[in-house]
Request: fold
Amino acid sequence: MTRLLIGVLMAGMLAGCGTTPTKEQDGAAVEDRKPGMVVDRPPVKPADATKPLVTKPMTGDPLTDPGNILSRRSIFFDYDSNLIKDEFKPIVTAHARYLQQNPSTRIRVEGNADERGSREYNIALGQRRSEAVKQMMQLLGVRPNQVEPVSFGEEKPRCTEAAESCWSQNRRGDIVYQGR
Amino acid sequence: MRRVHGLDLGVTSPEEFVGQLPDKFLGSWYRLVLAFLVPLSFALSPAARGALTIEIIGSGATQYPVAIVPFRAEAGTPQPVTPVIAADLIRSGVFRMVDAGGVSPTPHEPQEVNYATWRARGAESVVIGTVAPLPDGRFDIRFRLMDVAKQTQLAGFAYTASGSQLRLTAHKIADVIYEKLTGDKGAFSTRITYVAKRGNRYELQVADADGVAAQTILASNEPIISPAWSPDGNQLAYVSFEQRKPVVYVQSLTTGGRRAVANFWGSNSAPTWAPDGRRLAVVLTKDGGSQIYLVNADGSDLRRLTQTSAIDTEPNFSPDGALLLFTSDRGGSPQIYGMPVTGGEPQRLTFEGTYNVSPRFSPDGKSFTFIQRNGTRFNVAVQDLATRQVQVLTDGSLDESPSFAPNGRMILYATEVKGRGILSAVSSDGRVKQRLTADAGDVREPAWGPLPK
Reply:
């Protein structure tokens, strides 16, 4: 997404350079520019709203780009909680935007629990976590049928040592793109 | 042996395995080593692969002293029956084995029983019998249970069985002895199911109630949980994650055929059978949250039963089919509730502690077993429905998935020892405990099957 925006901005800059090169030159030469002073930005070419942006990605598939925030697929939770913490909101938001822009793309959110005790009750606890992720995505405009919340309960621990640092790895929701 | 058909999901498509079970899963692949705390041990099933140890701790309030005389000619059969009968009776905790050795002549028929000898040894009853090969390769097994004081026959039965059915015959004889002497039905000829995890592989298995003669009915590289017996013992419902999400399947043990009965949007789990075998209760999330639904065994006529924004899960029918027990956190912590199957206001049943889960009715419907958290420990408890009195029966650190034997006398559950899952059973009065320990893998999610119909 970020790269895409830069690409659009660059395209706009190039367009600006092409139409008014002298003026840009002049602007750059002004010396009494003070901090806080509003400087005209180069004109930006609006995107064509009839065509989704992602049909022309600048650097390949954002889902397979390890530098892209979309490569982050796990949201971790506190004990006995299904609240999405602030640090994970950008991840959920980024995936929500991607899904909005790709309405035919579907994901599963796999909820997991580290809690001991009943395996079935832990399926339900993991489900709450996956549904919390789905709910946030829906509030951001994702269509309900794009996100299937499911649960693995305590069946798929990422870490099996008896320590909180380990258990916290297991209280998570994993975003899994379908058909990829 | 009662054959069941199995599937292997980890190797190839399920269809290819519908039908005959792979040979490697047939036969008793456990060697049974009985390491009793009483000074007694038998080596059974010599042609086996693996080891299963049964340890018995404690004893019943009443112990019936019984002598079991090795049956005539049983030594020459593929499976001598009297060691299996003795092991069954000992496991129940309510029998004491009286030494039957060194009696001459060894009695096999009623007229050969010298009652004075058995009275002197303290036996109240004596089991005698014979095994004779038949021309068709099968065996004729006859046994009699003799009352030492009255010098009369309490029971006598004859069976015809193939070599592979000798173990089941022994369990049936143990059932007769148990019922004649205690007045309660025996459950030795029933079966259990559980999930064995070996590395990253999950195997849903069915075994005799003593954990022997296990057969894999489903193998998968994804988790399998919550197996539940149909009331006739011919089908299992379970949750498999083979589609990378929980889906409820029903599988026939006789044909190996299986079908998804609940594969809705979201998670599908916690299957349990209505006593009529026609319907199941399942937990679905298709409408948001984990809620209880009723569905026909063929997947039709889905009906939502609970209507809350809380977790409602782990349903279980009362034996008369009128009530459902389930776990809900509607009150803030997971507790056990009961509600009519026809709908209506649920009633909270557990009040001690902040974590009471996994309810299962007793066969008489008068009590239920469940898991209660005490501090950091999770233990098997029983609550009387009328008095609400709770008795905690176990003291493990992580006990799970309790289910009653169909005679109500024992409760099978999963526990953890040194990080490994094993199966245990406890008598419903808490006096007798036994451990069934397979030598390989991690065993969990047990469920005790019904009495044979």
In short: Helices of chain B lie at 82-92, 115-120, 166-182. Residues 10-51 of chain B have pLDDT under 50 and may be disordered. Chain B has two domains: 59-182, 191-448.
